[in-house]
Amino acid sequence: MIKITLLALLLSLFSVLHNGAAWAESRDVPQISPFPVGEENTGYAQYFSGRSWLAPLTRDKRLNVPVFNVTFEPGCRNNWHKHTGGQMLIAVGGSGYYQERGKAARRLVPGDVVEIAPDVEHWHGAAPDSWFSHLAVECNPGSNKNTWLEAVNDADYKTATAEK
After folding, report:
1. Considering the entire predicted model, what is its pTM?
2. 47: left (phi over 0), alpha (psi -120 to 50) or beta
């Protein structure tokens, strides 16, 4: 009887530890906003320094308003880029940055809104020490084309994100 009880206890403990490890692995991306994190953004990984995740939030194409939740690990940012139809960002979790070419970077926290005019070269991403999540709204989706440019190098990112 003691052997059966001990075996059952060990199996229970293994199950708890195993499930806990699986939970920890599945939670390597913290839930920092009420929006889904989505899948790792492997399709656009070549345009990001670091890892990001992408979750489409709108599905009805008749509404003509594509919205995505983009989550960045600390230090992750996308390359310089521009949109022919513009873009809007709404910060929803963590802390990040947005920078237009030739201007100082702007720190973003939940509730901040960035309106990006058509063809403005810019980048956005997480602060060096924080996860970051924003909603990306594709403006004028029927004609909006994205042009990816060079990566934001580490030295420029460090300068842009240095607290002043």
Report:
1. 0.82
2. alpha
